[in-house]
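[Discussion] Sanity-checking designs against the backbone

I'm trying to build intuition for which residues belong where. Below is a structure token string of 277 positions. I'd appreciate it if someone posts a full sequence so I can compare it with mine line by line.
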């Protein structure tokens, strides 16, 4: 489905160059929900932009269903952290959600059907005539998610989408993403710097090193499929996985692509959790 092979990105400026991504390789299968976590500044946004075809990599390749990504692919939608900047203040909720559909030229009836459905699934059917500035931060992010849902993407890329909302809203939105993922069968790559979120949400968590970035570990999250904020987060397995990812992130801060051996391969302790359950 989505393949990242030997991806490298070097930003070159007049006086300096920054090697943000060194050599990233991983695969995301159709219908998977994968989280990507790493220390601040490790290149998560850079990676996501390369995957979305918004940034040209220096080396390596991203491909979707075997086709190289060299511009925004038609079946992909992206939700960014800054919902305030992705919504248009002068358009109401309905028009904001409908905007990307205009390019598809589906006809008014089909467009209305998709927008109504998207607003329904994110719980904003009653707010369709409101303007973004009349909504809370959490509701605005729901509008951004509805916009992505209405587009009927095969792949949904999310870049720290809940970083700017309060903890309670964040928990609700996490559950919304899991519900949408299960109901719509969409493939999701969710970038976060929040360790709890990285464990709670996905089926796998890819842990990145500091810049220049490599994959430190691709961890299977073997929590039950049915998750809820109260029981899942208080389960012993959640605590173990959380501790493991936390530990890896701490090590990641002292590790980058300059070191040959990935952190996960250097310690028996780090494989402890994988053999359990
Ligand atoms: N346009 C740019 N020009 C030069 N360097 C850049 C540019 N964008 C990002 N970088 C550098 O690339 C590295 C990775 O940045 P990026 O924003 O991808 O990291 P991140 O993991 O998303 O950060 P955060 O966790 O803080 O959101 C950083 O060292 C950053 O300074």
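Best answer:
Here's mine. Compare freely.
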């Amino acid at each position: 489905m989505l393949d990242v092979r030997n991806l490298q990105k070097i930003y070159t400026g007049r006086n300096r160059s920054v090697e943000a991504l060194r050599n990233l390789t991983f695969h995301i299968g159709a219908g998977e929900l994968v989280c990507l976590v790493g220390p601040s500044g490790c290149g998560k946004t850079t990676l996501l932009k390369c995957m979305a075809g918004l940034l040209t990599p220096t080396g390596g390749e991203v491909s979707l269903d075997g086709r190289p990504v060299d511009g925004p692919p038609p079946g992909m939608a992206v939700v960014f952290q800054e919902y305030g900047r992705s919504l248009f203040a002068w358009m109401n909720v309905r028009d904001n959600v409908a905007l990307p559909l205009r390019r598809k030229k589906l006809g008014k009836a089909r467009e209305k059907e998709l927008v109504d459905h998207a607003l329904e699934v994110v719980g904003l059917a009653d707010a369709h005539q409101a303007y973004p500035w009349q909504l809370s931060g959490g509701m605005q992010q729901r509008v951004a998610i509805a916009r992505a849902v209405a587009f009927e993407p095969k792949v949904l890329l999310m870049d720290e989408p809940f970083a700017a909302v309060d903890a309670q809203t964040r928990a609700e939105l996490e559950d919304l993403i899991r519900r949408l993922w299960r109901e719509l069968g969409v493939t999701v790559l969710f970038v976060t710097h929040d360790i709890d979120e990285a464990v709670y949400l996905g089926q796998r968590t890819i842990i990145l090193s500091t810049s220049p970035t490599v994959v430190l570990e691709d961890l299977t999250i073997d929590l039950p499929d049915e998750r809820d904020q109260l029981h899942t987060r208080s389960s012993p397995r959640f605590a173990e996985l959380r501790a493991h990812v936390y530990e890896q992130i701490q090590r990641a801060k002292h590790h980058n692509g300059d070191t040959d051996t990935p952190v996960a391969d250097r310690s028996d302790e780090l494989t402890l959790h994988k053999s359990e359950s």
